[in-house]
Predict the structure.
Amino acid sequence: MPVVDVDPDELRELTGHEEKGDDELKDDLFGIGLEYEGTSEDGEFQLEFAPDRLDRLSVEGVARSLRYQYGDASGVYVPDTNDAEWTIEVADSVPDERPCVTGAIVRGVDLSGGALESLIQLQEKLHATMGRERTKGAIGIHDLTMVKGGSLDPDTTDAEASNSITYRGIDPDGDTFVALDDDAERTPADVLTEHPTGQTYADLLDDYERYPAIYDDLGLFSFPPVINGRRTEVTENSRNLLVELTGTDQWTIDRMCNIICYALDARGGTIEDVTVSYPDTDVPKPDLETDEKVVTHERIESTLGIDLTEEEVLDLLGRAGLGAESEVWGEQGIDYVVEIPPYRTDVLHPVDIVDDVGRAYGFNDLVPRYPDVSTVGGRTDRSRLERAVRETLVGLGHQDLLNFHLTNEDENYDRMRLDPGSDVVGGGEPATIAEPYSEDYTIVRTWALPSLMALLENNTHRAYPQDVAEVGFAAERDDSNTGVAERRTVAGAVVRHDASYEDAKARLQVLARDFDVELATPETSHPTFIDGRVASVAIDGEDVGVIGEVHPEVLVEHDLEVPVAAFELRLDALAE
Amino acid sequence: MELPQRELAVLEAASADEPTPVAELASATGEKPETVTGAAFDLEERGLVTVSEDTVADVELTEEGERYHRMGLPEIRLYETALGAGADEESVSMGEVLGAADLDGPEVDIALSNYARKGYGEIESGDLSANPDADPDTDEEAAALDAVADGEPIDEDVREALERRDLLVVHERTIRSVTLTDDGVDALMAGISATEAVGQLTPEMLASGEWADVAFADYNVEADAETPSSGKEHVLRATAERVTDVLVGMGFEEMEGPHADSEFWINDALFMPQDHPARTHWDQFALSEPSAVDELPDDLLERVESAHREGVGDDGDGYHSPWTEEMARGVDLRGHTTSLSMRYLSGEAVGDLEPPQRYFSVEKVYRNDTLDATHLLEFFQIEGWVMAEDLSVRDLMGTFTEFYSQFGIENVRFKPHYNPYTEPSFELFGTHPRTGEVIEIGNSGLFRPEVLEPLGVECDVMAWGLALERLLMLTHGFEDIRDVHGTLADIDFLRNTEVVY
């Protein structure tokens, strides 16, 4: 989950609550869902939060939420915007993979004293969350004074029409620019191989024939989604900003743009529209339209489990930063028509508004009650059988084990003298992990005995006997719908200086007696066991497992200096 | 006073003036040394003797030491040969002397390195001189070799020097000796008779009736016995059983279902957008073999896709994310057992369910992670849900407060949280029963309409999940999760953990 660094002093300043102590602030933050994780070296709170309220990825957004929570602000706030002076022209050459663009101009912003740092953090966190590591949406912020507007129409001298920049696609080596933190002219393709940031994001453009690029009158100044040009770099002294976003989904980049605009508005900036100009239409951006949903009074009361008056609900909605009007119908019916601000990305359904009301009310102020609902509990047949078999084995002196289901081919087959795809217990083909982190855990075990052997291998320094058993899970591939046949398996081993086939057989006989099944052990061969000392486990005539003395080669492979007599069979063979 | 015969014999053979070694007592009483030791300890328990322990070092010549004992130390042989060659007058060539001394192989180095050290002479640029005043007869090391061969004691420093030269080995052993206490002396003076004490009660004694005429030797009933090899239910399994007991007692029925399942049941049915960061290969265990299921329930698939794209209800919105059936068919090892909840709620598992219902499972889930003290690649998830008309957040809080109180976790706090599949959602925090620390103990919420409507559920469902290992570490204070779960477990740890009930 995202962690945001927030300066508590800045938070007090932006909320206007200088009197709040650190502990009080932490409690208030917990109440709106931000968990205090610790304090950074610079004395900033590290706040962890779930990725729904992306508008809180900056100190400005957190302060806004607290002001609502404190009742210092209420209802929906939408910043005024000035008319567009700038145009983003969308060229036909824009790569098909990245068709969407949006943006805004912000003037008169004060980025000194931590505000720039906060803006950069917000941009990074938005990239990591909504932007899906810049694939779905990427943000570029530029110092507007360093951008020179070009003209759409070379014949015009009209000042307004001449403020235009272009989003286009170019050949990977089609132009050069100086990227941020660089001092040489490079082509976009060279940036991807030579510049550290370029290297990090090079994968994003793997399938692109043409690379996205933004031009002003002086040339290429932004290479989304990778890096901006050095010319338009934003500093603490920048007052006027150009915000541009490109991506694969228009709604997503519009909302990301809104979150940036609200944060800059909180820093004293004035938002100014830009015109995004397609060949056939012009669209004003940013899109600060509010959304509307209807929620019933009854739903709020039933979900929160409390009675509320209409005035209380309206107050709570306002404190959640939502606009609301009530509509009364019939005897007691009340609907609330709720206006949702354009920085919210998480309100998909009226239940999300009910949640906001609950947060404004304070969920921890609700009194728990045990639901008046009567049901009958119980276990599955399988889990009762599993428990009974486990208890029987423990009664026979076996230490009960709980091993990992994940293993690797070496443990599961090779070290047991077994070949994958052989027609013996454990010899089935394994379900295989696509991209494992660790080469120790690459498949699901096809049988449990290798896990027992691995445990014994790790405990050769401990006292013997080490009789062990596991009632557990194993799986192998088959032709079913999921392609995996899963089963519960019962594995046991007698591990002591004089362990023999007879010891294992004796234990199987007890299991057969206790679960009232007929046991036979016809001779068989299995590479894990010594020839002539291995048998199939046949329960009521069906072949369900294997029993034998483990082959010395397997013992030596596992560093064991005592014999092991073992068995493994399907759990369901013992079922009624 | 009466004592068993063997104890009486030892007591009589022992002295109050000086400690008598067990070996001496054994030959005096005609008993085996281990019998005497046992009797001595029993007498000590009675306060009649004290048993003291001395460590003695038995010194023995090594093969090399034995050879030098016979032939003389190499440096002395060198010195004597050097004298013979007149090296006490004038330096002679080293090669010549070595040949004449019949030294070769490693003995050459040994002879040369000890020669100068012991002052037998000097070696300079290949020439060797002999010190006329040196006297091999006073060589302490040579004398010590002879002494050891004769079983006589030697000086500590010389012993260490010879040990370093690998000419001696030292075996340490413990010698126990017995001394009478004042009480022992008094008891002997007062007179002691031997009892006909019986050690083991045998079937023969019972059958013959002999038991009636014998006295049973007193055991040291306070002494520890050898711990038998025994089996025990695994501590984590026992915790799972305990959780199961609590939930069954609260009216929950158990669920079961596939570990390898389609992404559809694991993620799509849960309204997880397909481009959600947790749905990358890096967080979940996608399988390469098999890689896709053959079939998904058509109608349900359509409804779930529609919820993702359009949302549900009059003014619901969907996600602005791509959605493909191909992704829904992908096979994963489940990252949570909420996939089971989806199968049960949809009617797929046990047919359509009418409210009210309570269901749970305590089953394995899988996460692609790096194994360390607090993270496992597979762990047990406790999953539970309640289906009823008009459930509220307060019902949810009441249910979980009750559950946690069964494990001594009180003061449960609810932090508003976000899950794609529940709203409202809460992370649960509790106070550690021992440390008093506030820690996360679960995740919960009411399933969203976008989850329930496609499944055909028309009432409310509240759900929660928690890692079983976390609960165990909380209630038992274990620090390394790998001790508790998996093939890296220490069998002694499992044998020695307190049982869970």
